[in-house]
Amino acid sequence: MFLLLIVAVFALVAVAAPATSTPPGTLHYRSYVYAGQTYFPGEGSFVAANQVYAERLTPARVTQPLPLLLIHGHGMTGTNFLNTPDGRLGWADYFLSKGYEVYIIDQTSRARSAWQPTVNGPLETVDSLTTSSHFTAVQDFGLWPQARLHTQWPGTGTMGDPIFDAFYASTVPSLVNNTEQDVTIRSAGSQLLDIIGPAIVMTHSQGGELGWVLAESRPKLVKAIVALEPKGPPFILAVFPPFTPQLQFGLTDTPLTYDPPVGAPSELAPVVLNTIPNVTCFEQPTPPRKLTNLLDIPVLVVTSEASYHAQYDNCTVHYLRQAGVSVDHVSLPDVGIHGNAHMFFMEKNNIQIVEQVVQPWIADISK
């Protein structure tokens, strides 16, 4: 009977596996934790809202001193880091293989972090055309100059392609109100860090803003930040019109601690550093204020060759450095890695990127 059970399980795994050859994953223990819930009055009772879900993946042998906390971007969930849409190993498994314990969240009001319509406000969904033109088939749309260089997405990146369809099926509605996202992650994410303890925070895209938020609220627990094309540039939207104000505190929509202190966001009084078509890069006036709670936290910003972030991540990096933050900025083509766009951590060369750029940096700052 036991032998039959083993054979049955093997058969199920074999059926579920993709057609391409995929190496086995890393043996690990999986659990989860919720943090930060608040009770709100409902119809005759109460509902819980604003909690954050975190999936905890612990390798059979933990060899690294600090765990990783992974934060996905807008319209996404923590599944981004588990495996790729075409069935290859994701970054979570790579880090498990290197002995890191890994925590992966679903942002508040997203996926397994419950959304309460009477508490959290409206949601929005990224449509399939925007997903193709901004992320997976950018070379076909040419919405920014570097887009033509994109070669690394597996498949066509458009609706009807099975790999795109698998990826788009994983997208979910997200909060419209970015300040609400900031506020709830500041609370729930901070409580999660209190549970985890000191950690390295890795963020992507809109999640990049949340890395700064957590560093602000728990500067002693955030030991480093790896920002994969973090939300930017400071103060104003870029590349895609309308170019409306955003990130009123430079890196976030909610307050950061500056020295000298800032009361209202207008006191930052940003000035134009430079402009290119559809991008205005702002900096602080001289002498610049310092971001007090980020000064002792090393930061790595990673930018791909063909992403729209290639237009302005340098602005975000300049703003951080001007505010006294220690930042290493790696543009992937500068280290011989070409053809990637915004979702590079799940593209064809995803393991090359983490193995040659991200993990060595983490290992170095963890010494």
TrEMBL record:
Q: Which UniProt keywords apply?
A: Hydrolase, Signal
Gene3D superfamilies registered for this protein in UniProt = alpha/beta hydrolase
Task: Give the organism, scientific name.
Answer: Mycena chlorophos (Agaric fungus)
Record field: transmembrane = none
- The protein depicted here goes by the name AB hydrolase-1 domain-containing protein
Q: Which Pfam families match?
A: Abhydrolase_6 (PF12697)
**What superkingdom does the record give?**
Eukaryota
Q: Signal: is it a keyword of this entry? A: yes
Listed GO MF terms: hydrolase activity
Keyword Hydrolase in annotation:
yes
Q: What is the lineage of its organism?
A: Eukaryota, Fungi, Dikarya, Basidiomycota, Agaricomycotina
**Segments forming domain AB hydrolase-1:** 68-347
Q: Where is the signal peptide?
A: 1-21
